[in-house]
Write a structure and sequence with these properties.
One of its GO terms (cellular component) is cytosol. 37% of the residues are buried. By secondary structure, the chain is α/β, with parallel strands linked by helices. Strand 6, helix 5 and strand 7 (173-178) form a beta-alpha-beta unit. It has helices spanning 3-9, 29-36, 77-88, 103-115, 145-156, 189-202, 215-227, 246-254, 260-268, 272-293, 306-314; strands spanning 15-20, 46-49, 55-60, 66-71, 91-97, 120-124, 173-178, 206-209, 234-235, 237-238, 297-301. 40% of the residues lie in helices and 17% in strands. It is globular and about 60 Å long. It is built from eleven helices and eleven strands. The protein has a nine-stranded parallel beta sheet with strand order 9-8-7-6-5-2-1-11-10, with helices on both faces. Strands 3-4 form a two-stranded antiparallel ribbon.
Length: 317
Amino acid sequence: MKIVDHIQNAKGKTLFSFELLPPSKGQGIETIFQAIDPLMEFNPPFIDVTYHREDYIYKERANGLLEKVAYRRRPGTVAICAAIMNKYKVDAVPHLICGGFTKEETENALIDLNFLGIDNVLVLRGDARKGDSHFIPTPGGHAYASDLLGQVKSMNEGAYLYEEVAAHKTDFCIGVAGYPEKHFEAPNFNTDFKYLKMKVEMGAEFIVTQMFFNNKKYFEFVEKCRDHGITVPIIPGLKPLTTKRQLITLPRIFHLDIPEELSSEVELCKNNDQVRELGVEWLVQQCKELMDFGVPVLHFYTMSNPEPTRKIASQLF
């Protein structure tokens, strides 16, 4: 079922969902199940699975020259989504990213997803490769999420890369990312909203936000979206603080603001156990306020660690 249909069928009730990471290579499928099992009691209608681009290493060849070799740290998202749907009978939402994939590889992934009956995708540009100072498009791939979205939309219309006549139409429900505190590469909020609206006009049917710790940022973001004529569901992305170090790493990596009230309380914690307890309490209050606001879904970034999210959900659902 499509995400928008899950939301419509809920008739105003806030749903629960979460995102997980594919395990590191060498780990088996049970790793995925261990990250999902504790959260299934809250009846998630869908589970997001992230996609990760390749990394590179340089190996010395026999002639002394260096050869650039691509390798992946995690198994493919398509296979994980298939396993989730088969075991749990819930919808899996794979991320699609620009970085690390050619248009042909993207089309092949979409063909596989369509074959498996997976009809939701979250379209993202993706991050810069490790070691790069900025995002560099893959040769033969897409530079922007809007271009990737366009390829998915074309397949929904029966247009494939090398087909001269209309082929079988896919029917993907397409989601995109939203940034309550502005995408870090956008020069200003208005430019950010211009491109977000363009993606919705191109066919995006729902928005999932970057994590935030101040609900006011989300409320203002929703209001600004509506003012710009963006009417699709806007799903808040959420994550509890679990370590003191995250006061530094989360703002640096995700370009977000942690409220002074929260950071001050974290600084008073004697250890990370206390930080986790505080993080859960803070996010429970966030979620209650968001539910009162009428958000369609509470979407948790679990980082494949289900316990903090389980503690939060047990107080809400």
